[in-house]
Design brief:
The chain is mainly α. It is built from three helices and no strands.
């Protein structure tokens, strides 16, 4: 007499509610990861632009003829950097807020089912 137990795939053993929750979580995770990827690309683009400006400022400083020119290059660099970082911070928050809203919207049933 054999005492074999029935082996079913794990997904078959989940309840219908569990399957819906798992599908929803998977969908939300995929949406969130797409948003994170877009944010990372945007941040890398920003860093690339800032590095180019940093190098340009270093070159301008190397070519400066006197102290007033060094002061002018430094002031322009600092002003531009502060502006760039302030703008990027605002853009980052705007994008993060939008991403959170889009990810949350993905959790709301579309057909009105709870």
């Amino acid at each position: 007499m054999s005492t074999q137990t029935e082996t079913r795939p794990p997904f078959d053993m989940m309840t219908e509610a569990g399957q819906k929750a798992f599908a929803s979580a998977t969908h939300v995770n995929a949406r969130a990861m797409c948003g994170v990827l877009a944010m990372q690309k945007h941040m890398l683009d920003f860093v690339s632009r800032r590095i180019e400006r940093d190098l340009a400022a270093a070159e301008a400083l190397a070519k400066a003829a006197d102290a007033p020119e060094i002061a002018a290059v430094t002031q322009e660099f600092c002003t531009q950097a502060m502006s760039d970082y302030a703008d990027e911070s605002a853009e980052f928050m705007r994008r993060a807020t939008a991403m959170a809203g889009e990810t949350f919207a993905a959790t709301v049933p579309r057909d009105g089912a709870a």
